[in-house]
Specification:
The complex is a heterodimer.
Chain A lengths: L1 H53 L3 H7 E8 L5 E2 L1 H10 L2 E5 L2 E9 L2 E8 L2 E4 L2 E3 L4 E10 L2 E11 L11
Parallel strand pairs in A: 1-9
Antiparallel strand pairs in A: 1-2, 3-6, 4-5, 5-8, 6-7, 8-9
Chain B lengths: L1 H23 L7 H21 L2 H7 E8 L5 E2 L1 H10 L2 E5 L2 E9 L2 E8 L2 E4 L2 E3 L3 E10 L2 E11 L3
Parallel strand pairs in B: 1-9
Antiparallel strand pairs in B: 1-2, 3-6, 4-5, 5-8, 6-7, 8-9
Helix pairs in contact in B: 2-3
Classes of the chains: A alpha+beta, B alpha+beta.
Chain lengths: 167, 155
Amino acid sequence: MLKVGRNVFAQLAFVGLVSVCSTAAQQTSNKAETEDQIKSEILHIEDIRSKAMLNRDVSVLDRLYANDLSWSNPSGESLTKAQVLADLVSGKQKFYTVSHDQIRLHVWGETVIADGRSTSTLEYNGKLSRGISRRFLNVYVKRDGVWLLVAHSQTVIADQSQGGEKQ
Amino acid sequence: MKIANSLVLGGLILVCAMGRSQAIAPASQESSAELEKEVLKVEDERNEAIMKGDVATLDKMYSDEIAWTNPHGELLTKSQVLSHLQTGEQKFFSIKHSDRHLHVYGNTVVMTVYTKSAVRYKGKTSDAPRRFTNVFVKQNGAWLLVVHSATPVEQ
């Protein structure tokens, strides 16, 4: 009886150890894979968004932007989703080129922070902005399986020679 | 004996499965209003620490990977932000925030604020209006600031 009991505990310990090790390894592997997948999804959405802005395709942007979107433009104006889309429709805002670089992505579960530098050529309120570098921030959140842009802000880089990276 | 072994193994698998499902379940079931209240408290504590130059408190509140853009469009790291306060390169004289809006998305809170805080940066003091966005993420039960992005408001 004693022999049988020892056998059972040895089996239990072995199974428990294998279970813990495989679960931990799987979770680490899954996390890395998921983060890479998420980053790839967000970059794809950013491409779609850039094309939609250039083509003034408001119906695509309407689907990408959360209804309670927080938007700060480079003039420090706080705009609603409806205002952002209406500005594109009316031509108050027009994009001539969309150019983004220095993009960094941070994944926080179902939230992704994307920031980078924009040198897009655009017109806003009759004022043309060409060759001016701006820092942008985009915050994406996954809702019901869909990535939505929930916050956007832009800041003009005061020292254009530095490109916004403090030396 | 085979039956006993099977029962014990079955129990073990069940316990492991339960542990796993609890780990996957959402960490918090708090309401949006409760989360907003928590974040506002953290933001108030942050402002107090900024005024005091309490870098140790800010170190705990700021994520190591924080994405920080100041109103000059400079992209700063956490260590740069904290060292500016420590060395006096940046000094706050007053905190004047208004028009605060919070949006809760699960364990993420987006906050937008209009500010006229008086601050000295690189020898220049200004209380010119700015608008900033802060993003807080809850990790291991604590709210971390992961984004701060400020933009001057044209007058």
